[in-house]
């Protein structure tokens, strides 16, 4: 009886072996159920995420720069990714206040580069003139190349995704009015000041996760800025006083030409926005 039981055990074991181990080299149903797929850990890349190497940069982003606002410019920037490591951007906005910062920092420092002959200087216009509503446009365009960098600026703030090199230009128009009591002009004079910058910028980029992402940039760089403004010269004008006496005085009048100046600039700033 004992011998029969042992033989029965080995027969059942032989029949059960294919169910447990399957055929040699082939996976059974349990193997297939618990074997991970070959897809990425977090699933396939979703629309709006160009990352194939872990760089989760949104395909579209709209950003705002508080540093530009400190310079009297309110603008929004749209960035469009053309590939994982290259993007282009365009900005539009308006100037609402005088640009104290750049002119205090660079106006007198590089005055030797300028050969202005206007009797009313650029610094006089900026500090004594009044900013007026008008065609105070701002726009900019640039291209970026993203890359890996071993150096991370402000690493305590964000785990930065990438560094980037940006080439671009900026245009800003400021409308001023020169009051008679300050500039000794017969009537208030409208003056246009235009800044054009060509920039080389290095920056660090971070974006959060999720369907709608937040983006952050800290940048620093170098720029050549050309500033042009309406030029003035002294002209002799006859005036009549309250007693009908006629006299000739010398007053600043527009020449119809524009003066220009060139200034190198250092750039530093921060932008934030949303991406998708």
How do the helices and strands line up, and which of them pair or pack?
Elements: H1 2-21, H2 29-34, E1 60-64, H3 66-70, E2 73-83, E3 86-95, H4 100-106, H5 122-128, E4 130-131, E5 137-147, E6 162-178, H6 180-183, E7 189-207, E8 213-240, E9 246-275
Antiparallel strand pairs: 1-2, 1-9, 2-3, 3-5, 4-6, 5-6, 6-7, 7-8, 8-9
Structural class by sheet pairing and helices = alpha+beta
Helix content: 10-25%
Q: SSE order, as H and E?
A: HHEHEEHHEEEHEEE
Q: Assign the CATH architecture of the largest domain.
A: Beta Barrel
What's the CATH first level of the largest domain?
A: Mainly Beta
Strand content: over 45%
- Overall, the morphology is elongated
Number of domain modules: 2
CATH topology of the largest domain: Porin
Descriptive notes:
With 276 residues, the protein is of the alpha+beta class. The protein folds into two domains: 1-35, no CATH class; 49-275, Porin, CATH 2.40.160. It is 18% helix and 48% strand. The chain has six helices and nine strands; from the N terminus they run ααβαββααβββαβββ. The protein has helices spanning 2-21, 29-34, 66-70, 100-106, 122-128, 180-183, and strands at 60-64, 73-83, 86-95, 130-131, 137-147, 162-178, 189-207, 213-240, 246-275. The radius of gyration is 34 Å and the shape is elongated. The termini are far apart.
């Amino acid at each position: 009886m004992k011998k029969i039981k042992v033989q029965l055990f080995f027969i059942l074991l032989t029949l059960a072996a294919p169910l447990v181990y399957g055929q040699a080299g082939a996976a059974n149903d349990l193997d297939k159920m618990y074997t991970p797929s070959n897809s990425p850990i977090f699933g396939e890349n979703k629309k709006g995420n160009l990352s194939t190497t872990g760089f989760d940069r949104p395909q579209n982003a709209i950003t705002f720069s508080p540093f530009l606002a400190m310079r009297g410019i309110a603008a929004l920037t749209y960035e469009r990714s053309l590939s994982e490591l290259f993007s282009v951007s365009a900005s539009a906005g308006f100037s609402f206040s005088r640009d104290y910062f750049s002119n205090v920092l660079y106006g007198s420092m590089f005055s030797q580069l300028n050969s202005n002959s206007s009797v009313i200087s650029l610094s006089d216009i900026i500090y004594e003139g009044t900013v007026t509503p008008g065609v105070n446009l701002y726009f900019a365009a640039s291209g970026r190349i993203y890359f890996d960098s071993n150096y991370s600026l402000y690493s305590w703030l964000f785990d930065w995704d990438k560094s980037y090199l940006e080439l671009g230009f900026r245009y800003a128009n400021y409308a001023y009015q020169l009051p008679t009591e300050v500039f000794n002009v017969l009537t208030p004079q409208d003056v246009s000041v235009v800044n054009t910058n060509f920039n080389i910028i290095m920056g660090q980029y971070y974006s959060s996760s999720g369907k709608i992402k937040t983006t952050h940039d800290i940048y620093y760089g170098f720029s050549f800025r050309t500033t042009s403004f309406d030029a003035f010269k002294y002209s002799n004008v006859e005036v009549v006083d309250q007693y009908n006496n006629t006299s000739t005085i010398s007053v600043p009048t527009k020449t119809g030409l524009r003066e220009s100046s060139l200034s190198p600039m250092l750039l530093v700033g921060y932008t934030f926005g949303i991406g998708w």
